[in-house]
Design goal:
Two copies of one chain form a homodimer. By secondary structure, chain A is an alpha/beta fold. Helix content of chain A is 45%, strand content 17%. The N and C termini of chain A lie far apart (47 Å).
């Protein structure tokens, strides 16, 4: 059975992101030689993901490895970046100029990874017209037009929960393709809009297992 | 070969967190009846994780399921909460009263999940002595003593990268057991201190795969 790319499970995609990070670290340590290969069992040892699973995940997208030799690291990184869309720039807007919105605008990791913040939106007249770093704060009333005119790819929702659905609807009306939602509620969105709900408390949960053993 | 709990791979622990969330959603929808069972193949369909992997992950910790019937949902949630340390309260301090630090203090999800923020630390004299919500901002000089006196479990690092190692060292000196690091650098820590590096750009990366298909 062949899977179309749209049917590939989200967890497979998430694992591809993990393989990509793992290979980036290998390049940091071992350099960018084209002759460096890595076996699925080495990736398994570094990521903790079963090597059969790794081979299966990668095989969805092509035959990247050579039996008995492994995967060419540099080439596999490029293939993964292409598959994951990490080799291009993405336009992002942030809805909500509160503390989290401000923190995200100043977060250096986004630009480095190709996520370019084009504007921040709020309804507070005291904030509208000001800047955070070199990014302007616009009236949330302009959100829909801004997304359409500037062809924005991703909207980040950091408004209070009670306004989240309303602001998400504006994003959808403007033609947003994906929403990263930090608000603690499930949004109702048309199926063509991709959503990722962020729960920061999840970041703690891996740690508590180990603390529990102490 | 039996694994001691300390040797269980981090990705297994991360998957247990995913199963836990999945079961919580099932309880939300289906209620808290003790008679509700779920098969590993149903968990697989909901999480996208292979059912053999699910059975293997859970079998590290005990025989929770019945062949041909599945896992009792309520009981498995309780077992997972016990394994993951999610059935107790954890004391947390935040180092860095910038935008991200302020946002984390106000983040409602933490308290709900048992992560209780006991203080926030900064070196800015204009911030020290003020409050964010009902949490006081203390001088970072008091960090070590505070951690020791209040028996703090987890330190959250949201200081600029250039101060992160220095502040982490203070946390370690105070006896912190785990650090959640938002600063974009690798910290050098003694092996007994558990670290989790947060990279918020990772949250975007699953989305771009789908955008890339458009």
């Amino acid at each position: 059975m062949s899977l179309t790319k749209k049917n590939i499970p989200t967890v497979t995609i998430n694992r591809l992101c993990i393989y990509h990070r793992c290979l980036e670290k290998i390049i940091e340590v071992e350099g960018k030689e084209e002759s460096i290969f890595i076996s699925s069992s080495k990736i398994a040892a570094l990521t903790g993901i079963n090597s059969a699973q790794i081979r299966k995940d990668l095989a969805y997208f092509g035959e990247f490895g050579k039996r008995g030799i492994g995967y060419p690291v540099i080439n596999l990184v490029k293939e993964l970046e292409n598959i994951l869309g990490l080799d291009r720039k993405w336009s992002v807007i942030i809805a909500g100029a509160g503390n989290l919105g401000k923190a995200l605008v100043r977060y250096k990791g986004f630009q480095k990874r190709g996520f370019l913040i084009k504007g921040i939106f709020d309804k507070d007249p005291l904030k509208i017209g000001k800047k955070i770093g070199h990014i302007s704060i616009y009236d949330v009333k302009e959100l829909e037009k801004f997304i359409r005119d500037k062809n924005i790819d991703i909207g980040v929702l950091v408004v209070p929960a009670e306004f989240a659905q309303e602001v998400a609807d504006k994003m959808v009306a403007g033609g947003i393709k994906a929403i990263l939602n930090f608000a603690p509620l499930r949004l109702t969105l048309p199926p063509e809009v991709k959503i990722h709900n962020v729960d920061l408390s999840f970041e703690f949960e891996g740690l508590t297992y180990y603390l529990n053993l102490c």
